[in-house]
Amino acid sequence: MRDEFLISQPHLTALEETIKKHNPFLIVNVGVTGVDNAEYANNMPIRVMVKEYQYSENSKCYEDVMTFDRIIKYEDKAFNEYLSNPKRDIFALNGIDKLEYENGGVNVVSSDKFCKEFNDLLMSYFKTDIQVISNDAETNIKYLEKIGCAETVKDFANQGNVLYLPKVAKEYITRNTSGTSAKNISLSNLVKIMKEKSNSTLSDAEKSLNGIDVRTNVIAEFVSFYGREKNLLPSNDEVRFTEAGNTYIEDNSQRGKEKYEKASISEKIETLIKANAINEQVKNRDYPCEINKLYNVFEGNGKNKAKGIIIMQCATTGFGADNMPIQFSAVVCSLQNGIPSVEKKFCIDIQADAKSLEKAKNNMEKKYRPFDAFKYCDIDLQEYENGISHNEKPLPKGVKKGKVYTQEEAVKRIEAFFSGYDTDKEWAIITNGTAKDERKSFTQECLDKIGNMAINNSPFIDFTQALKEYVYKCQALDKEIAVFHNEWNEKNFSLDSFAHNLNLSVKNTTERCGIVFFLARDIASQIVNDKILQTVKDASEQESKKIEEIKLTADDEPEKMIHSNARLATPNTPSEAPMFNRYDKAAEDEEMRQFLPKRMRPRIPSAEDENDVMNDIYSNLGYEREDREDPLSRMMRRERENDRDRRRSSFSRAEFERHYERDYGSSYPDRRSNSDTLNSFVDAMGDVLSKQASMVSEQTRFIAEQNILLGKMIEQMSAQTSETSKQNAQLIEMCQQQMAVILNMLNEKETLGRDKINKINEKTN
Questions:
Q1: Residue 101, domain extent
Q2: Which backbone phi and psi does 303 adopt, to 5 degrees?
Q3: Entry pTM
């Protein structure tokens, strides 16, 4: 019997399954003016609250992430008089400020507006298959039908996704208690049981249970209570311990954040490196990182040369997993000489679903870290909601102000915008931030939620990461940081910080794209400047190298040529070289010509004489001959010269014979015959002529080789002169281009206003 009874508890089992899986759940609570009876049967719903709860891994418990709270205002005077009946305070029972109801507060709406907002909200959850817990679904459907908005609740109930709290309470009380009758089950009894088991006391609000907000919170508390009781959720002690740990971590994180914001640029970079936000290999040009991807685009490197860049940015309802896009902007920039120039802009506001819209509203009112998603992208919430309503009732033709595109319309317009650009090969996508899996950018991940578009899968460059890497790279390589336009005293390297450094404000996604364009152009201009400077440097080094080569050729080639043949001489050598002077003097002396004995013939030039000739040749060419003689050879040569001088001084016999013949008119008795003397003289002269012919031949060959060398040198000088002229022309052209770029940048910077970012967009157009 006990097992059969447990099986008959479907609501409690379904709730247990939801908690076990840590799935989110939705509480729908409808407050009415009273229960219809025979006396009065025209009661109506007056306050409706819908709350979404999600399990947080950080806090280890369920937390509310969305609250929809509306008060329905009725124009029926008779009904309003009924509400004013002092016997039954409907306003206090439902937690409504009567004055707010009468004057029409923020959450006070008409029944028609409530129906639309309520149905849109539940429909946005319908696709998620979320578990709904209702205070009493049957009663809620009954009264919601009176204002025509019960269909969505019926759809949830028909799918079996609605848990009736009275039935859940009945199953729980029946299973766990024995003193409470099943006929006397109420929310108040359920609260008492929870407090008894947890050894805690009831609060004043829990005692009265006035206000559907209080009753909604009690239902959520029961879900957590049951989860802890079944050991499906951490205990209260574990939750408190986790909370204390999170507080400690948060405090340390806050102190670390403050320290980081006050740190210098170098200290910030060091912190990012330690946190693995920047890899030191970024300094390497070939390392795969965001800044090098950007360099490749601007320098025209890679497999496909980019025609330009497309900067895109998306704003969403928040930063959670279920955030939805509300604004999208894109700016197309073509590349002209490596520098981006704006060609086309695109911006649309996108309708978010009701669930995300309500979450965005809730985030605006949070006590801890509130965030206004609409202010972030310069959207007026009232105009935005009016634009959504216009989708039901379209604006007149020609009226575009306040246009908010449905998700289907937005997908079509975005696809049409990108249809003319090949974002896989020819156009580089630049955006900010990446998804958690780093496979897509933040913008692409958001666009995925409204439609499957080709742009969502295109390669991209994370510009926020590229900026960090760029600052580090410039600092490491001791280069100017071009994106710093003023002294850097910003908190971090976010896009907002760079905008602040530029004395500019960023209001929407279009202006954020404009800031990205401005900073990207600074980086591109620096690349062009560095390229020009490097070209000038290379040209200067090349020119210096060529001049040095010419100098080396002029210095080394004659030396090499002369050393290759020790007998070479200049055309003037025969009249100037000492070895030939001896023959000239012998030819001029008649007496020597007639009586020249063999042993008195001009001697054959020796190695020492050739050495003298070489020294004279070097002197005529204007060079100082290198002394290549080692000390031992030099000593032996000098000994030979001394010995030769001694031998020459001992040759007195020839002189004696000559004087003898002159004085006595006859030859010395031992002299040889005239025929022998003549023959000896002829032989000597033949030897001399042979030597002269050999020297003339060597001279001719040397002159020919000299002419060849001079021709080559002239040809080389002509080629160098032509190349230098071309390089000078190129340098002049590049300098003119750079000067034009610099002048354009100066003109643009002068026109920038501090508080009018729209001027940037006008100028870039």
A1: 2-231
A2: -65, -40
A3: 0.68
